[in-house]
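On clarity, I found the account of how folds are encoded harder to follow than it need be. Since the whole study asks how a given chain folds, the encoding of that fold should be made plain. The format is easy to grasp once an entry is in front of the reader. For illustration, here is how one protein appears when written out as sequence plus structure tokens.
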Amino acid sequence: QVQLVESGGGLVQAGGSLRLSCTVSGTVFSIVMVGWHRQAPGKQRDMVATITSGSTTNYADSVKGRFTISRDNAKNTVYLQMNSLKPEDTGIYYCYMPPQPLVSNREYWGQGTQVTVSS
């Protein structure tokens, strides 16, 4: 059973930083693509960043240059370093594993962690 467990959210002032962590179990983490999505109040859930098994990264335009996604295969963990945070970064951040060959034909989500950026 694949499980994704996030941690690291909280309240921070604009301009501050936070680092989110997501530990993945139940699969061979080193071969999977994982990522982060976020859902702001009253809005749909959108992709923030993804990282492939080969550590190729992709970012939403709104976070490029401020957020960095990385992975530690020895710890089965993916990170999201968030710098220069803005109030519009506020939302629930979800760790996400999409369907992918040799792993699973379904997607998996973590329970989410709240990030609040005050102005």
User: Anything to note?
Assistant: The chain is about 0% helix and 50% strand. The mean pLDDT is 96. The longest strand covers residues 18-25.
